[in-house]
Structure formats: structure tokens, C-alpha cells
Amino acid sequence: MKFFKSISLTFLSNSLSRPYLFLFCVVLAFSMWYFVCQYETSEKEVQLLLNYKGQPKELYVTDGLVYSVRERIRGPKPLLDKFPNSYPVPIDISGLKVGEGYTNNFSVVDEQKKYVSEIQLRAFSIIDIDHPIIRLHAEYRDRVSIPLSFRYRSDNDLIVVTHKVSQSSVACYGPENEIRGMKSMTTLPLDIRVDLLDVGRGIVQKDIPVIISQTDYPHVTIDPSSITVFYEVKGERVEVVRPFDVKLSVTNPTLYSVSPSQINLRLKVPANKRRDLQYLKELRVTALPPDMQEGESKRVKVSFTPPEGMEVMGTEIFVTVKRLTEEERMDSEMKGDWSRSSEKELLREKNVEQEKAKRRAKRRGSAKKDGQTSQKKDPGVKQKESKKKGEKADRAKEQRKTRNAGSAGKAGSGESRKKKESGK
Questions:
Q1: Kindly report the CA angle at 263 between 261 and 268, in degrees rounded to 5?
Q2: CA dihedral defined by 387, 390, 394, 399, rounded to 10 degrees?
Q3: Which of 78-82, 298-302, 387-391 has the weakest average pLDDT?
Q4: CA 215 → CA 66, 140, 181, distances in Å?
Q5: Which of the pair, 237 or 409, is modelled with greater confidence?
Q6: DSSP-assigned letters across all residues of 295-312
């Protein structure tokens, strides 16, 4: 202990006598402290992007493929900052083997060492990894050829005739187990959506993708992936001219006026739809007014949104849209109120007439029922009813005679009174 004290005292005395030596010791201590702090260990999470190469052509991997692995490593902070956040790791699977229940194991760490230098990996330690071992299951690749069948889908009753297809069958490649299930399929149906626009246009060409169930056959690939079909939709197209109201595509259309508010359009529709008013009314005729000041007017192009199978013939159509002033807006609102009131009155009158017509129809129906029931009655009942009607008529005659006699007696007594008064 005394020895260390003597050494420290001598070093202190020498350093004080030599200030440069003291300063050198301080700088050396600070640099060593900084070096130790810089190389303090830290942790980082990196992502390994797995790329499989060397797969044998006669084999197919059915299960176990992992394309991304998360790895947590620890090492010096300066080296970790330079280490990439993600990098590809190729995995050689040329040694795949096939067998019932056989699993091919590949170590991600071993494959990673082939990509990253060993000197760099020695500075790190792997703390955690999602999939340290990749377990792959493989099967032999098989092939089957399946003929195609076509189903035409349409919301309308259309007659479709198939003229030609680019290929009548497709080749399916995949694992032996899945292809074995596809060999029992007689045909592979393809759904073709038929549009009303195809009516009367002659031969139509359309590319149809070949789709199979991904739940039943997840690893099967099809060659070719699409088929070209040439078909014809029977029918003809006719031209129809109808008036349509122009509507403004704004939140408050009462601020504007449109001139003309109604335009005649020439339409081309399927022949079976030319009298279908509901179908023709599906055409939307709109105009989008630009930003305008009050009282300003501009020409605006009319846009059309036709339903399926309809074509708008002719050139572009323009209308004049005006931003109304307050006075014009008040006048239009008053006219609108008056038109709405007149429409309500017309509706009321129509409803009253309809009710009257219903009542008359009910009366006629009840009268017909009474006549039918009277025809169905027995002849004895009819005789009794006729007797009752005759008795009622006789009683009515007697009542009329008595009334006439009473009125005549009153008239005679009145005349005698008048003669007496005149004689007096």
C-alpha cells in the first residue's frame, strides 16, 4: 500500500513539474473513454428476403415456402448503423427430395453466412429469428389437358352463336396430387359476359381469362392463361329519337337556368328495347356548370351516361347555363310554386275521377252479380217475386186514385165557394 502511495506521489509531483505529461494523460483517458462508449453493444432488427434457386424442373414445392424472415442481432453500434435493414438471402434447393411425409430442412443462418462475410458476422450475435429452419414439402410435377366449354351470361334473353375459339383445350401443370383431382373433370367451363352493345354487330372478338378454383387447386398453373372467342349475338339495332331533360350536376340546381332545358337525342338500341320506356329513361343527360358570377352565362358541353347496350348518336351537344340573380331566382321559385300547386290540383282531379270510375265499376259488377243470381233461382221463387211486384204495383195504383179523388173534391169545394162569394 505504501508502495502505491509513493508511486502516485512521485507521478503527481512529476506531472506537476511537467505539465505536458499531465495533459497527455488526460487526453489519453478521454480518448479511451470515447472509444469504449462508441463500441457499446446495441440491438437491431433486420429483414431477410429469401430467394429460392435451383428448383428441379420435375418437382413442385407444395408447402413450407417462406419469403421473408425477421432476425434480431446484437453488436457494436457503429457496425449496426452500417448494417442494412434488409437484404436478400439466396437458398439453394437443388437437393430437394420427394417422399411421403419427407421434409427438406434448410438452415437460414447457414445460408446467411454464404452471403454475409464471416468477419462481419463474428462481430454480431443472433438473438432471435422467426424461421431458423425452412421445412419444404415437394411433389412430382404432373400435367393434364382439359377441354373447354363456354357459358354465355346476360341479363337479357339473347341468342349467341359461337363461331371460333383460339384453342379448344388448356394444359394444366401442378403437383401430382392436385392434377390427379383435375383428371376427373370432363370440361372446364368459361363464363362469357354478353353485352347488349354486341347485338347486331356481327362477329365479336373477346379475350376470356381461364380461371380455376384457387382453394381446390392453389398450385396449378394454366397454359394458355386466356382464350380468344369469336361469337355473334343475334338481333338487330334500331334508331330511336326521344326528348330528354338536361339536369345540372350541382348541389343546388335552382341557382342556374338551362337553355334549352330539353334536347332531342338520337339513340341506337337493340330492337327488343326500343319500346321499353324504363330502359330508355336510364340514360342520364347532365351538364356541369363552371364557376360563374350572378347574371353570367356560358356554353357547357352535355355529357351522357347510357345504360348497357345504348349508344348516343350524333355530334357533341352544348347548352347555355346561366347563373340567376336574386330577382330571377325569386321569379323562378314563384313559377315553380304555381306549377307545383297546379300539378297538385290535377292530381286531385285525377284521383277523384279514378274513385268515381271505381265506384261505377263496383255498381256494374254488383248489378251483374244480382242478374246472375236471379237467373240461377228456381221458377217457383221467380213466380212469388213477380206476384209481390204485381201486388206492389196495384197498391201504388190505388194510392194514386185516392190521391186524385181527394184533390178533385178539394177543387170542387173551392169553386162552389167562389160562386157563392160572387153571387153575394
A1: 150
A2: 100
A3: 387-391
A4: 19, 20, 13
A5: 237
A6: T-EEEEEEEEE--TT-EE
pLDDT of residue 119: 47
Q: How far apart are CA 360 and CA 366, in angstroms?
A: 10
DSSP 8-state code for residue 404: H
Q: Is the pLDDT of residue 419 over 50?
A: no
Say which residues have a Cβ less than 8 Å from residue 152's Cβ, sequence separation at least 6.
158, 160, 192, 194, 231
Q: Sort residue 274 into left (φ over 0), alpha (ψ -120 to 50) or beta.
A: alpha
pLDDT (tens digit per residue) in 19-69: 666 677 777 777 766 665 555 677 888 888 888 888 888 888 888 888 888
CA–CA dist 252, 154 (Å, integer): 38
Helix (H, G, I), strand (E, B) or coil at 19: helix
Which of 99, 72, 94, 98 lies closest to 83 in space, CA to CA? 72
Burial class (CB in 10 A: 0-12, 13-18, 19+), 286: middle
pLDDT in tens, 213-223: 878 888 888 88
User: What is the tens place of the pLDDT at every residue in 172-200?
Assistant: 888 888 888 888 888 888 887 777 777 76
| Dihedral angle, C-alpha 377, 382, 388, 392, nearest 10 ° | 100
| Of 177, 146, 223, 217, the residue nearest 59 (C-alpha) | 177
Q: Which residue bears the cell 411421403?
A: 100
**71-90 residues labelled b (16+ CB within 10 A) or e (exposed):** bebebeeeebeebeeeeebe
Residue 149's identity, in one-letter code, is S
> CA nearest 235: which of 305, 164, 312, 154?
154
pLDDT, tens digit (0-9, with 9 covering 90-100), for 292-318: 888 888 898 998 888 877 888 887 889
Cα→Cα distances 86→114, 129, 222, 264, 308, Å: 16, 14, 34, 64, 50
Outline where 42-103 has alpha helix (H).
77-82
Q: How many CB atoms lie within 10 A of CB 220?
A: 20
273 and 296 in contact (C-beta within 8 Å)?
A: no
For cell 462508441, name the residue: 38
CA distance 287 to 323: 14
